[in-house]
Amino acid sequence: MSVVDRQEWDVVVVGAGGAGLRAAIEARERGARTAVICKSLFGKAHTVMAEGGIAAAMANANEHDTWQVHFRDTLRGGKFLNQWRMAELHAQEAPDRVWELETWGALFDRTKDGRISQRNFGGHEYPRLAHVGDRTGLELIRTLQQKTVALQQEDFRRTGDHESRLKVFQECTVTRILKDGDRVSGVFAYDRETGRFFVLRAPAVVLATGGIGKSFKVTSNSWEYTGDGHALALLAGAPLLNMEFVQFHPTGMVWPPSVKGILVTESVRGDGGVLRNSEGKRFMFDYVPDVFKEKYAESEEEADRWYEDPDDNRRPPELLPRDEVARAINAEVKAGRGSPHGGVFLDVSTRMPAEVIRRRLPSMYHQFKELADVDITAEAMEVGPTCHYVMGGVAVDSDTAAARGVPGLYAAGEVAGGMHGSNRLGGNSLSDLLVFGRRAGWHAAEYARALADRRPRVDDAQVGTASAEALRPFSAGAEGEAGPPENPYTLHQELQQTMNDLVGIIRREGEMEQALHRLAELRTRARRAGVEGHRQFNPGWHLALDLRNMLLVSECVARAALERTESRGGHTREDHPRMDRAWRNVNLLCALADPAGGLAATDPARGQIRLTRETTDPIRPDLLALFEKEELVKYLAEEELYE
Amino acid sequence: MSSYEARFQVWRGDEHGGGLRDFTVDVNDGEVVLDIVHRLQATQAPDLAVRWNCKAGKCGSCSAEVNGRPRLLCMTRMSVFDRAETITITPLRAFPVIRDLVTDVGFNYQKAREVPAFVPPPGLGPGEYRMFQEDVDRPQEFRKCIECFLCQNTCHVVRDHEENKQAFAGPRYLMRVAELDMHPLDAAAEAGLDRGRTAQDDQGLGYCNITKCCTEVCPEGIRITDNALIPLKERAVDRKYDPLVWLGSKIRRRSGA
Amino acid sequence: MATGTEPQHNGGGVRTRTRAAIAAPHLRTDRWWLAPAATAAGLLAFVVYSTWRAFANAHYYAAPYVSPFYSPCLAENCRTMRAGPNADLFGGWWGISPAVIILIFPLGFRLTCYYYRKAYYRAFWASPPACAVAEPHRTYTGETRFPLVLQNVHRYFFYAALLVAGVLTYDTVLSFRDQHYRWGHMGLGTLVFLANITLIWAYTLSCHSCRHIVGGKLKHFSRHPVRYRAWRFVGRLNARHMQLAWASLLSVALADFYVYLIASGVFDDPRFF
What we know:
Order of helices and strands of chain C: HEEHHHHHHH
Shape of chain C: globular
Largest sheet of chain B: 5 strands, mixed
Order of helices and strands of chain B: EEHEEEEEHHHHHHHHH
Helix content of chain C: 40-55%
Number of helices of chain C: 8
Strand order of the largest sheet of chain C: 1-2
Structural class of chain C: mainly alpha
Mean pLDDT of chain B: 93
Shape of chain B: elongated
Low-confidence stretches of chain C: 1-9
Strand order of the largest sheet of chain B: 2-1-5-3-4
Helix content of chain B: 25-40%
Oligomer: heterotrimer
CATH architecture of the largest domain in chain B: Orthogonal Bundle
Mean pLDDT of chain C: 92
Number of domains of chain B: 2
CATH superfamily of the largest domain in chain B: Alpha-helical ferredoxin
Low-confidence stretches of chain B: none
Strand content of chain B: 15-25%
Distance between the termini of chain B: 78 Å
CATH topology of the largest domain in chain B: Fumarate Reductase Iron-sulfur Protein, Chain B, domain 2
Largest sheet of chain C: 2 strands, antiparallel
CATH class of the largest domain in chain B: Mainly Alpha
Number of domains of chain C: 1
Number of strands of chain C: 2
């Protein structure tokens, strides 16, 4: 085996999206030599897809907004399952994180008096989202990217080398976190361009790899979202938290196939768009749950009056929370009242003049015009639910973003769990990235500094195992394996179909059991995933390696979803349709069944994941006091209330 | 729903050589060129290298050349082609090839580093920035850039003249200079940095002969030439070639002294 | 189709050794040559016509109309145009057509115009002939050195063009007279002149240098509301700079040709009142 190139860094950040870059900037500014590893080119991370904005209680649009109100909204959105200390820190620090972006050159849309403009969004009591048109994520990533470059320019002036203290390894993938005993000692990675392996030795590793959407067939996520960070944490011995909570956005495009899953922004409905089934009926009126009955209109006439006069009329049911709308669309399609391509119709064309549509929804107009050849001013859009975000993730300490049980491992952003509870509010993901990205970078740098010269060593045996694992697809079918080599693309498609059909938006016990069987079978086949060609930029090989992660994470989702016998936020059980207060303070933790971190020895039938239940810390009384008693009664168990 | 078989020529190879390979692939209604490339990967050429991410024209990863024109693969609908024609896909031809449709775009990251960064205004803390929408409109247009590098690829200054890569930053990074020069709170001038002059001296603005191919290929519809490059040229004229301005600044300096 | 399997020799440009080995200088299949060809034809036609007319030194005045090619008329050998744009700055030594003196300015304005530069760099110099079509030149320095660095004088030609447009406006006002210099009349020529001067102004004001001068150079529009409005107005015109460039080129030629037809007696100017 060729000698694996090794480098020494203080902090390694895996992922260069919003959280990763914010962590890297923080670590570098605190003096740590920092390496960032990302699967794509620098600046292409999935964060660019975020449209709505960054939620932060800056009170520019409404002076009554405070962090306490933001905290309250976040907990309501997450149905009180949030790691409350994270939600508190998030609400407190988000404004500073947004303002800081301005000092790095970000240009948000402005209010009349020159401050950052803030917009309304579902679940937020006040207009709170700092935004740049509908491309806020792009602005965020570009600003962080340019700040990174600014720091590199500073280092160049000082040392003559741009990359002396902050380096981005673009188009590289980490396949294993290396450990020395309990502690993190570095990462093992391959360079996509050359196929070469390398090891970055570092005492602190920050995971910021985003989500898991690519395990589902219909998703708004990009190819990178294969749950790498989730899987790396599991393999390193860190548990994942509440993986059953997956957010399905109700309106993704369903046609043409090439863009299936791409988001249709919530503002389409906010501006008057209505949902209809194939019979032309505005079906949402049939799906208003009892708890919301008094807040939503009962007739089309009343709903239509709301747009003009929201004070004297109730909201149209199209504006119910995301999970409700997604479930309703799902039910209509299952009942055979769907659109030709398996969605429902979202219509603005009969609701407002063409010119108004083009002015208010320019990006949607272009998205449909260019991608689907559909003129939304003349015909209805076809939409359906799409996998959007995973609330679950690496279990972390709220203040330091440190993963539990593995010293030196940190996680921030979508890959970290807890912050959003069972359901995330729009706008809270970008602020989450910034707040906890910074905290992860900060504490990782402190940890690395405190170690001084007592740094963990890289174990050559682990490097050897990791490279053998990564090379395995090239010799698939050779080592006397049972069965022929498998096509990784086929395996991926089958996995996506399984998760979509059996652990999707509406879940049933039998189906999830079936899913676990299929996953076990896929896992055995995935061990035979073979590739053609050589190591240089070989997408088939990359996919074969990503399959391990997707299968691990999918099993976590399926197992946790099977375990939680209630419906809450991003987890809907047809056989347990109600929220159960007894589950309010229960976290489900996933850990690897084989604590040594090996995968080969695992029993295929029983799976690789063990679940444990854990009771959450009681919410601090001063934070509970922010809510009315009547509201708390709906969520909290009796004993929690009386404490 | 109808599908048909389309003929493709896809460039395959690496820096040691390569050529156009013929493929026949099924095409379904509503697909884009990137879907076809993915189908090739899944069925005929699993190791066919291509970059892509969002598949919605927002990340700028899947830049390539289709029938000789620089485009995003995910935003090129199959319906724009005649069913009988053979569609050619090649990597970007201004950059070194790595493998198949993937090129080494390091040139752009190099140039990004050479543009002096935003200079925050001294004396203004976070949260104290006040800017007006009419002032941020101009730089905001340039910040729509998704860095697909199609403009960098199509610009003949470097596409047709490798040796100019040293001196010329390309439209994307000249636009970045314009963006910073138009940023209402950029304090470069106060810090002694003349962005108009650096554009001329360090970024090679003079190489641009405003033939507008950058604007033509921009998938974001940014009017790079009219709104960034020409204003930048005019600003450079202000500093370097305008005798009235030159005289004025001499007089002002003298009276100030 | 030529496709190498070997890396080519260092052919330069798209055939540089490190780039994808494709022998063809371009793979465009559309009619990319149409636009540069049409541009070349249009510009050539104008050059031929205007050269003929500029050196003709005849048939440029038919009361009350003066050809825009000869206005203002700055030499002694100009025809006397009553209350017309005569300004004998050059005296009697100037022997050739007086059009040559004044045409320098509009010519310079258009020659250094950002649109025309694009047009002739593409159409005549093939630099590049079309996007992603390899240009035939071995080296390229753009507008970094002499003579092309002189393109930067565009704004001075813009100032001159403002003056010329002013004179042509004056000529248009004069066209509200009849052959006997009595005011309050109109003929077909008046309409031709009105159309021409409108397009000349629109083209002149849509100039990129103008856009810069009126407001583009500012960093804070919010502090200069009037100039901001002016900038936005010019910006809207500027978006049509190419169309205006062609329309005004055509209209100025037509206005001249109209005067030529009247002056050479091909037909009489139809008078409305």
